[in-house]
Amino acid sequence: MAKHAKSLLSRWSSRVFLVEVDEKPLYFRLQERHGGERAPRVFGRLREADRCYSVLVCSGDRIKGAKFYPELRNKLARDLPPGCDLTTMGSFLPRVRDSFIRGYFLKSSVEYSPHIERLLRDLGRREPLLVCSYTAADGGGQLWTQRLWSPSQDETPSDYFVVSSDEPECHPSALSMINNDVFHSFEEARDVFRKCGGIIPEAASVLEMLPGSLEVCQKPKFPVIVIEGLDATGKTTLTESLRDSLGATLLRSPPECLSPWRALFDQEPPLIRRAFYALGNYITAQQIAQEGMKTPVIVDRFWHSTAAYAIATATSGPVSSLPQGGSEVYGWPSDLLQPSLVLLLTLDAEERKRRLKDRGLEKTDEEQQLDRNQLFRLRVEEAYRRISGPPCVTVDASPSADKVLQETLLLIRSNCHL
Ligand SMILES: Nc1ncnc2c1ncn2[C@@H]1O[C@H](COP(=O)(O)OP(=O)(O)O)[C@@H](O)[C@H]1O
Ligand SMILES: Nc1ccn([C@@H]2O[C@H](COP(=O)(O)OP(=O)(O)O)[C@@H](O)[C@H]2O)c(=O)n1
């Protein structure tokens, strides 16, 4: 059995599982004997004739695992029998760092079991998977058991009853966020790109754009002001006006030199996509360090965008599912230049939609999700506010463009020496 899968089995009975139903995570855990607890909510409405499966990706190679996870969804969606329900799930060891693994939860009628089990076995030959089946253990459908299959039967832990588990303090993906979703160092992000060179040839071109090492740059002489906010809050409009008003240099992250590859890496799974944006920030940081010796610098998006979208995407549900304020995941990378001031543009959802419509440009998938998914938008906004490091001031972006500019100039003058 694959080494990584084996280590996951060693504490199998302590694992907690979550199934995402309509953006809401429902939790359950395992128990050897049943003490009369109610069935976990995810099994609550099932019938005895239903059969469920969990399929968890447990590849030892995190690049391969990250690539396989979305591929697995496509394959399942294509090859599962009609009427089979497919949703995302995960499993973790409470409070154990890097213990979170992702997968899918399937629900189907028992008559399709042979077909599904054959399909899952085939998929498990491609990449290591941990597959469990869930069966009703009583006539009323109140008791459910989990049976774990593994490539080698003698290593398989026994069957367990599944029982509801309390919600953890925040979404358990937080256990594995650092250096998978949110990169806290240049070297960690570069390492991902070095390792994916064999699968994605364009990774080499991105690596060529990077500084060989991060020289300790001198602090820029002039103020560095980052403008942040969701799409269509007015960043482009404001940054261009600030450049003209302050005689500043305007930079952006990701930098222009990465634009040929942005669309490609936007299609990649979070591990690779986030590493791409993290590396973009380091290139922009170098440009800031140079230009900031000559003029003030205005930056359109920087680290806040990279971290806030990453954290909000890795979690699900309401704002309360985000890692708590003060968590290390919100920390500013110690090797990344800190701007003098970050201004976060905020706009109510309706006005933002109106501006988006007027502008009529194509949006990234993530930006489209902001429109469809109110909870996702709230998580991004809250994650923005929780990021620590340089001072971050919220600016109401709903007045006219000129009023927003005047307000911003006042803030810059009172916070930076200009
Ligand atoms: N303060 C404002 N009031 C009204 N419309 C604005 C304002 N600022 C920007 N816009 C318009 O809203 C749209 C989105 O602005 P833009 O600067 O492109 O946002 P972003 O760069 O944040 O995506 C554009 O059509 C722009 O002309
Ligand atoms: N510094 C940055 C900039 C963008 N991004 C990502 O890029 C997306 C937004 O980019 P965009 O080009 O639509 O933004 P606008 O500047 O057009 O508003 C977000 O989904 C972020 O995930 C990032 O991660 N880090």
TrEMBL record:
Residues in Thymidylate kinase-like domain copies: 227-406
Q: What are the entry keywords? A: ATP-binding, Coiled coil, Kinase, Mitochondrion, Nucleotide-binding, Pyrimidine biosynthesis, Transferase, Transit peptide
Organism's domain of life?
Eukaryota
Query: Looking at the keywords, is Magnesium present?
Result: no
Q: Name one GO cellular component term.
A: mitochondrion
Any one Pfam family here would be Thymidylate_kin
Keyword Ribosomal protein set for record: no
The family database entries (Gene3D superfamilies) matched by this protein are listed as:
P-loop containing nucleotide triphosphate hydrolases
Q: Which reaction does it catalyse?
A: CMP + ATP = CDP + ADP; dCMP + ATP = dCDP + ADP
Example of a GO biological process term? dTTP biosynthetic process
Q: Recorded E.C. number(s)?
A: 2.7.4.14
Q: Where in the cell is it found?
A: Mitochondrion
List the molecular function annotations (GO) for this entry.
ATP binding; dTMP kinase activity; nucleoside diphosphate kinase activity
Q: Which InterPro entries match?
A: P-loop_NTPase, Thymidylate_kin-like_dom
Q: Which family does it belong to?
A: Belongs to the thymidylate kinase family.
Protein name as it appears in the record: UMP-CMP kinase 2, mitochondrial
Q: Per the UniProt entry, what species is this protein from, by scientific name?
A: Oryzias javanicus
